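Many introductory courses stop at the sequence. We go one step further.
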Amino acid sequence: MIEILVALAVAAILATVAVPRFSDALANARARADVKSFAQSLNTARSEAVARASTVFVSASSSAWAAGWQSWQDVDGDGVRDNGETLKEYAGFGSDAALTGDQGGSAVTTLSFTANGFLNAAAPVDFAYRTSPAVCSRDKNIRVSLTGQLTVSQRVCP
């Protein structure tokens, strides 16, 4: 009987240690998947611009990137996404993370790649992926350079 109680006590201690670590591992994996999905969608839009020899836009579905985004080609040249111009729609994040775009201090909700794959802008675009609740080690910065290349880096924690 004592052996069973000792075994149960050991199992309970192991469970209290393992469960928080497992949930941390899941949250880390979710954050990596969110950032990877967004970066891949930007690279896909860049490739589409080159393949189509035309400007391809990437826009937030609403005012928040984390709610979803789409890539599109402005076929009629009016600067507005119309029916039939969407190339691909991306679902938002499954977590409470935020994604904000910034270009020289101004918020960015749309960016575009030229037919040669360059960012169609005067300055790089910086995206900040931030988890909620805030865990600095999961947060990432994504930079789209003028040449259209992406760089993903760890947030500098205070």
